[in-house]
Amino acid sequence: METLESWLRARAEAQPIGPKARRLLDLMVSVPKFAAYASAAQIGKRAGVDASTVVRMAHTLGFDGWPDLQSEIRSRYLSSLSASQLLETHDDTASDPIVRALRSDADIAAQTANSMDVAAIRKIAAALLESRRIVVLASGSFAGPATQLVHVATRLGLDIHLADRGGRTLVTSLAALDAGDAVLIINLWRLPAEVLAAATWAKTNGVRVATITDSLHGPLAKASDHVVTIPTEGTSHFPSLVPAMSLVHALLAEFTHVLGEGGRKAIERNDATYREMERLRKEVSS
Domain HTH rpiR-type, which positions (predicted)? Predict the structure, then answer.
């Protein structure tokens, strides 16, 4: 991903901005941590302009307002930090780490519920359900939400597979897809080159690309047909999985609703298979 400075300056060059907006831009570049968390009034005061100038600059750069622009700035700022730098950023020896983590996850869950683009989630669900075969690409911590999605969606009867390893294993997973199939990518914080390559290959070959990420304006979003962004900031050196898990639950709920009787029958077949396997296991072990 390009640096925050190069990204901001490139967007500013595409639109004429005045001296006040230029001061704001220079401030955001020089103190990105402050820009990632300050209110419009706070950042305006530090740059010597009023809050309305901050909002107008956000509009000029193509955003709905300061919160929208700040979300992108925060995502890019956090993505630029190493795990040790993240730990330093969130270091707070004055509070209980367990309580802080629990409260942070509760807050981010509420933020996710209040800001989520329901229509965008429904479009991703529809694109996946229309596909013959689905590959879910995720790695690291975010292979966790992907694992639950694949497990439960398989129980609903979908032909869906987890790709949580790269290299030739990922190539083999992608090669099994045809035009009209789908790749769902869950990628946040940092963008591995292999993930972007997979999205580019899929889109070039007519495979639907749906992405869950933390940046609406990054290269992965540009390589995708459908995008939903979620917050990921935790309280330590690792991201919070709460928003990703919430989104997975939302997708599964939508799958279940849309599939209706077909999904119910698939669940019943799964339950019957489980009961039969348990019976056979007991016979073998007796």
Answer: 4-80
Residues 6+ apart with CB under 8 A from 49: 20, 23, 24
Q: Lowest-pLDDT range, 40-44, 97-101, 145-149?
A: 97-101
> What mean pLDDT comes out for the span 62-81?
86
Torsion of CA 12, 13, 15, 20, to 10 degrees: 50
- For position 145, what pLDDT does the model report? 96
Token duo for residue 153: 């969606």
- Work out the angle at residue 48's Cα, subtended by the Cα atoms of residues 46 and 53, and round it to the nearest 5 degrees: 100
**Is residue 133 pLDDT above 70, yes or no?**
yes
Report the CATH number of the 114-260 domain.
3.40.50.10490
The residues spanned by each domain of the chain are 4-80, 114-260
What CA–CA distance (Å, rounded) separates 171 from 203? 15
- With contact defined as beta carbons under 8 Å apart, do 30 and 8 qualify? no
Q: How far apart are CA 38 and CA 256, in angstroms?
A: 41
Comparing CA positions, the residue from 220, 218, 216, 219 lying closest to residue 230 is: 216
Q: What CATH number has the domain spanning 4-80?
A: 1.10.10.10
Residues near 79 by Cβ (< 8 Å), separated by ≥ 6? 1, 189, 190, 191, 214, 215
Q: In the prediction, which pLDDT does 218 show?
A: 85
Q: Which helix (H) or strand (E) holds 147?
A: helix 143-155
Per the structure block, which two tokens stand in for 60? 């000029």
pLDDT in the model for residue 1: 58
As a whole number of angstroms, the distance between CA 286 and CA 267 comes to 29
How far apart, in whole angstroms, are the C-alpha atoms of residue 271 and residue 273?
A: 5
Q: By CB neighbour count within 10 A (0-12 exposed, 13-18 middle, 19+ buried), where does 157 fall? A: middle
Render pLDDT for 238-274 as a digit per residue (tens, 0 to 9): 888 999 999 999 999 999 999 999 999 999 999 999 9
